[in-house]
Amino acid sequence: MENIIFEFPYLGHEHIALVRLNRPKVLNALSTDLMQELVDCFLMLDKNPAVRVIILTGNERAFAAGADIGQMATASPIDQINDQRFRTWETLKTITKPIIAAVNGFALGGGCELAMSCDLIIAGDDAKFSQPEIKIGTIPGAGGTQRLTRAIGKSKAMMMVLTGDMIDAKTAYEWGLVAKVVPAITLLQETFELAKTISDRAPVAVRLAKEAVNKSFEMTLKDGMDFERRNFYLTFASADQKEGMKAFIEKRNPEYQGN
Ligand code: CO8
Questions:
Q1: Whose CA is nearest to atom 52 of ligand 1?
Q2: Class of the 203-249 domain?
Q3: For the segment 52-73, what is each residue's pLDDT rounded down to a tens digit?
């Protein structure tokens, strides 16, 4: 893989993987090849039963400054339709393990959309988010009008999408786009701590919970509640649910096997 680097186990942790976008010269612009490698890597990690949490990050300067403008500049609509990138973006939704985006620096355009495609975002205090497509004569194409609106509401999303201007990490936190802001220098350490906490939870329940939360974006409240209830019932088929409740009653820490 040329455009990403992955580490598993990450920092020696048997259940945590780190994936790093690695095109620093172009601020991690999301080329077709990069997106393909990223999705292949996620699929591989998703299949590995030892992996419980995935962290996605960039570098100090940029998480990702958007789709690769050089690759898009002269494209026709049919080129865009035929480009595999859009199919790879769709595949991101199928990953069952939680993905935490750890964002330092720029998360712009497709970079902001990629962070929003993850399950939650932790931002370094120097992070900047925007949907700047309007400044180059186009509009967001991978969720910037949809996920952003659901995250921060219509008025603020309109302001970001229609101006293309950036917001800082503090604003992103206050608006509900990111879960937590931490000092840029400790971003990976803090994200790792969060990943450790999640990886200590019952893996089957984590996957079913992630699936149910994500369904809330796609279903009516009633259908979402029904979906949640079925996943709740399903956890009772897992050995980990029996272990979790038994451990509580016996006043000890649970030992989850992921089944
Ligand atoms: N694509 C290609 N190259 C880029 C990109 C990009 N998105 N962003 C930065 N680069 C390159 C620059 O061209 C430059 O290369 P070089 O050194 O060869 O000139 C290098 O990265 C460093 O960038 P700058 O010199 O511009 O650095 P600055 O610190 O001056 O500025 C900015 C940083 C503000 C981030 C600036 O680079 C910028 O505005 N970048 C473009 C941001 C943008 O418009 N992003 C949106 C792209 S469109 C998009 O994402 C649509 C997504 C649709 C869905 C995709 C589905 C597949």
A1: 110
A2: mainly alpha
A3: 999 999 999 999 999 999 999 9
